[in-house]
Amino acid sequence: MNLFDETRRAWRRPGPPPVRTLLWRPKQDRWRSLVVLSHGSGGAAANLGWLAEALCDEGFLVAAVDHHGNSSDEELLPEGAAFWWERPADLTVVVDHVQMTEKVGSAAVAGYSLGGYTAAAVLGARVDAAKLRRLYDGEPVLPIPPDRPDIVTENAELVARYGRAAVDARAVGDYRDRRFVAGVLLAQAICPILSDASLSAIDRPVLVRWGGADEVEAPEVNGQRYTRLIPGADGRSMGQHVGHFEFGDIPDGAAVRSEVLADVLPFFRALLAD
């Protein structure tokens, strides 16, 4: 599906941003509910095909989004990596469209890495304004990605391009969508910059899974913090030797993904009405 968000403008080209979406339809005419998936930074919707196919086999209608400027299936833009708070709005666009065109009621969300943050955001997680100011002042509030060693300078240039007030307003916005009744966060990111109060106010069932050897997103400040602050969150490590990318689509992660599915499928099955 080639959707567009008419409420926003695309980066570096005229018109609204695209919300390209892959859809998996169950074989039966009537499905349980909708599950929306969000990929990691620089990844693509297809990377979560392993999860989408398993959910589809369970009778769920599944939609996976390619996030504008941050997907390998289109041009990667610095805004896509830096302005990650734009991602949750993509999921709302998908639910808007699917609920108008398909026979579906309740919705749930699952995300991997930066998609884990995206899932948390539509459940109510918000950026802490004070921490964001510190980040833009050059403090290491978040780790510097290996592929973006000049991230502080890059972010400063982007903020100057779009205007500090406009960026701040979008960054700390509330992107909660009450239609999402449950969420799954896998090898999740960005938690250090989220406000404690917003995480503590999430009132949806949340399942959190991470790897003890995650080399990208430290579990202590991500998976463990999400689990500690979200009321009733079901969180655990998938093993002390499990890294970040086993949750993606690399061949070496098949066993981990199988174990993740053993938790995720009954979690959604129990919470989403037929």
From TrEMBL:
Taxonomic superkingdom: Bacteria
Q: What GO terms are given for molecular function? A: hydrolase activity
Write down the InterPro entries for this protein, in alphabetical order: AB_hydrolase_fold, Hydrolase_4
Kindly give the Pfam families that the UniProt entry links to this protein: Hydrolase_4
Domain Serine aminopeptidase S33: from-to ranges: 32-125
- Species whose genome carries this gene: Microlunatus soli
Q: What is this protein called?
A: Predicted dienelactone hydrolase
Keywords noted in UniProt: Hydrolase
